[in-house]
Amino acid sequence: MDKTQYCMKLSVQPSRGLVDEKFTILVQYAPPGFRLTIHALHKSDDGHSWEAFAHYTTSATGTVNVSEDPSLGGTYSGVEQMGLLWSLRPVPGSSPALRLRKVNVQTPMEVTISVYQGHQTEGFMDQVQLAGTVVERWYMAPGVRRVPITEGGLTATLFLPSGPGPFPGLLDLWGGAGKLVEYRAALLASHGIASLALDYLTPKITMETGKMVTNDYFETAYRVLEQHPQIIGSRIAMFGLSLGTSMTLKMAAYSKVMKLRCVVCVGASHVQPVVGSVQELLDYSQKNAGKTRINEDNQVIYRNLMLPIPTDPAFKVDVGRLQCPLLLVVGEDDQNWPAYEAAMDMKDMMERAGNSHLLTILLYPNAGHLIEPPYSPHTRFGAFRTVNTREKVVALWGGEMVAHSRAQEDAWRKTLVFLREHLYSTNPGAASFSTNNQGNN
Amino acid sequence: MLRVHMSVTAIRQLIGVKTVQCASVCRSVACLHRAGGGVRWKSSYKQAPLLTATPVRGLIDEQISIKGRFLRPHCPVTVCAQMHSEDGDLWEAFAHYNTKADGTIDLTRDHSVGGTYLGCEPMGLFWGLQPAPGAREGLRLRKKNVETPFVVLMSLLEGHVSPSEGQSTELAAVTTERWYMAPGVRRIDIRQDGLVGTLFLPPGPGPFPAMLDLWGMGGGLVEYRSALFASRGYASLSLAYIGHKELPGPQNKLNVDDLYFKSAYHFLQDHDQVCGDRVGIIGLSFGVFLTLRLATQSGLKPSCVICINGPIGSTISLPGGRSVSFEERNSKYWTYNDQGHVSFKDISLPANISPESKVKLEFLASPLMCIVGEDDLSTSNIENADVIEETLRNVGKSHLLTRLSYPGAGHLIEPPYTPNSRASLWSVKPKKLITLWGGQLAPHAAAQEDAWKKILDFMESHLRQ
């Protein structure tokens, strides 16, 4: 293509967005019927390069609109407005089993979007782009404040929305890999919910004493939220993923201190010893370790650890005791936890107890365990090191990329609607997920 | 000193009275907590209302969608915008809305019934920003550092109030950023071949179509329009020609000549990141004269020329002759209003322009967009535009001309969604002078929005196709 003849224009709008906002990628003033590849490149906080690409042919007016035109191949196909983000994968030659997670939430994720001539599949770094631009994707909206919390022996970070408040609050728990994972709490604060990301597996106190925290630790975290002058004590939610759901359900059902407004659980299981806390939960998994399977790709499937769902009430949280709405997000191809079976059992328990009107289950066929905020790349399997055994394995999370990405988008939208309905309005009935309610404004 | 036993109501009023930036409000609240050892915040508003803005980080010329929800139905609320300029002045705007039956407001849908603007104006809180009561006289909002955004705090207040009255309860807030530079745009200082300028390059490998960007007699190096052009895919060079310490000679005189501007144009053309055959020129005010002068030089054929509110000639000749200051040559044409504010309008009346300086428009070979604000109090833009139109018609070149005329718009037709100053400080020495620019609030805002779209479309058709 003679560059002097055409002055191709590549634009992405908005060029600075929150990670859960959509963007529009437009190529204009290219020759008509021109074959090109749109490429996305991102360097993660831990120094790995990720890329995605898609093949397009320009229209008669020399245009490609990624929101409207089909990709003819690449890391995704068909009409996929956000495909260049959720189909990102490690560049060839990368370490296997990587997972893309933002560590520093105060800086944006930068993605370079470029246009290359022809339908290319590799060697992008050796070629000259026809056009390129940079997009920023933020977990934190302007004015959101990040406050490290160490009071009460906690290892936590509080994210406060901009403004004087007061705001509803939320306690955010992640899974079995431990550490302090901040990005979901930062994003929720960007949506107006004061959120506390809590490290409950590897907090300072555990690292120093060698002892796992007990239920008091979670109640302390709740109290920090409840007593904060900018947080409405009567409007506090709890959000758990994976192992985090175990503690979330336990506290929601049994804690005398925590009066939760609503609960969200992703990839949940209520199966655990009712008595005790984190240590007992880990011991229970350890006891059942023999049930893990390894597939032909040497990936570890943990889901059977908690199957079959016990009938003995000493080994599952009595969700019949819940007095607040519960949203369960379930990937039907979850290979890490038996989220589907657990959800069905919880439904059963709640129906018998007469509180099933509080329950909403979102089921996603072909989605895996890690249903995270949308447009982040799907990880079907990944390096994993459990807190108790310290064993390094490759765990199978499950899910097929396209279905999982759709699940992330849909689940997040509905989660925000659910949280807003119960934390903001006066009349929280059953949340309505109709398309009139735009969860991601 | 705050006492522990202060009532919650008093605390709330205290917070409400201060129209300060969010950060200091929060510090005061945090102070309360520590001092009170358990002062609990209880909102009297039963629900927790939510104010959202999308996108929260936008370019200056992008619209923001502002919505409030979880409010009481059919209730009066005020939406307020506040920001601090780089000089520390507080600017604010506000509008009165009534919530719908579903407890929402949506500035893209609803009508303001009072405040800075009326009617459905999704961006009214931005273009309507005005210096807060008590501010210094003669302010104009201009971004000097284009690498950082304007931070605008949007808040939702109970009732139909004026933020400076101080009796309002704040229900919700959201912080927005307004950027002149998109991510990946490169800002490069240019100090070569005697040029004083700043080059903005879009992200990507290039080469790019380009614009030479000229401002008026206010002088200095004005970067923000160029930064926006680069954010829209055009390389753009902001050029200083008067009032800059790195230019030769006294700052209040025009000490550069035709060669200077030609040099700037060629610098762009020859730059390896610029498509040499796709270079345009834009000028505002005196920059119009410079733009047309450059565009009608032999050997130069810019792809497009854009002129906003300016003259076709000058009372000051470019050296060559004895260089004089703007004041020395022109003060006899200055007129004053009742408040002692000066209008420069008559300086550029065609009758007052020296005939030798008049640009030879008949040599124009490039498409020309001529933008005129009908309430311009600083230049005789209409008369000059008439001369342009007539001259081109006489030589059969009408097809080159696109003329846009905006009733109620003033002199400073700038990128959209930024406030206009009807008058502002022109000089401090030898005496304090405030000059009139003109422009009525809403019509000027509408003109900026429409003109910018048309400018970008004009550039697209002549620089890309």
Q: Any overview of this molecule?
A:
The complex is a heterodimer of chains A (441) and B (465). Chain A is an alpha/beta fold. Helices cover 21% and strands 26% of the residues of chain A. Chain A has helices spanning 83-86, 183-190, 204-209, 215-226, 243-254, 278-287, 339-353, 401-424, and strands at residues 9-13, 16-18, 24-28, 35-43, 49-57, 64-65, 89-90, 109-117, 131-138, 145-149, 156-160, 167-173, 194-198, 231-241, 262-266, 293-294, 300-301, 326-331, 359-364, 381-385, 392-396. In chain A, strand 4 (35-43) and strand 5 (49-57) form a beta hairpin. The longest helix of chain A has 24 residues, at 401-424. Residues 434-441 of chain A have low confidence and may be disordered. Chain B is of the alpha/beta class and 465 residues long. In chain B, 22% of the residues lie in helices and 25% in strands. Chain B has nine helices and 21 strands. Chain B has helices spanning 8-17, 22-36, 124-127, 224-231, 258-270, 286-295, 326-330, 381-394, 441-463, and strands at residues 50-54, 57-59, 65-69, 76-84, 90-98, 105-106, 130-131, 150-158, 170-179, 186-190, 197-201, 208-214, 235-239, 274-284, 305-308, 335-336, 342-343, 368-373, 401-406, 423-427, 433-436. Chain B has an eight-stranded mixed beta sheet, with helices on both faces. A six-stranded mixed beta sheet of chain B has the order 2-9-8-4-5-7. In chain B, strands 1-3-6 form a three-stranded antiparallel beta sheet, with no helix packed on it. In chain B, strand 12, helix 4 and strand 13 (235-239) form a beta-alpha-beta unit. The relative contact order of chain B is 0.10. Residues 1-44 of chain B have low confidence and may be disordered. The interface between A and B is large, with 57 and 63 residues.
